[in-house]
Amino acid sequence: MVWSSFRSRDCLISISIAMSVYIVMEILEYAADLTISKWVAPQPTTYVVLASVVFLTASAIGGCVAARIRRGATKFLALIVMITVAVLIDLKVCTIPVPWRYEFGFLTLGPLAVIITSTLFWTLKATRSCHVSVYVR
Hints:
There is one protein chain. Helix 3 runs antiparallel to helix 4 (about 75-90) and helix 3 (about 45-70) packs parallel to helix 5. This protein has five helices and no strands. By secondary structure, the chain is mostly helical. The termini are far apart. The longest helix is centred in the C-terminal third of the chain and has 37 residues, at about 100-135. It has helices at about 1-5, 10-40, 45-70, 75-90, 100-135.
């Protein structure tokens, strides 16, 4: 799927859109982490749960934004999210001991949040446009 996008001429545009959306996603995640840590001041275990919710929410929003800008960018955004999560798992950034299921959840649900929300976004948009075209006639 990604390889066929590499062969097309619009590949660089999709990659640049995915990188831009990813940078904005990370800025929003960082702002949410700062807000949560100042307002709630969670315990380490609570922070682990809140971080996963913030990550999946940011991934879902990023997937919708990437799909809105360019449909092909969602594949690259999901790939970027997967690579980032794999690198962060390998570097052991999380100092709180968590089971392997937690890391595996990030590795699978992060890219899925990007792809599923963008697919739902386009499906709802397509059905809405079909209903509008039926009423216009």
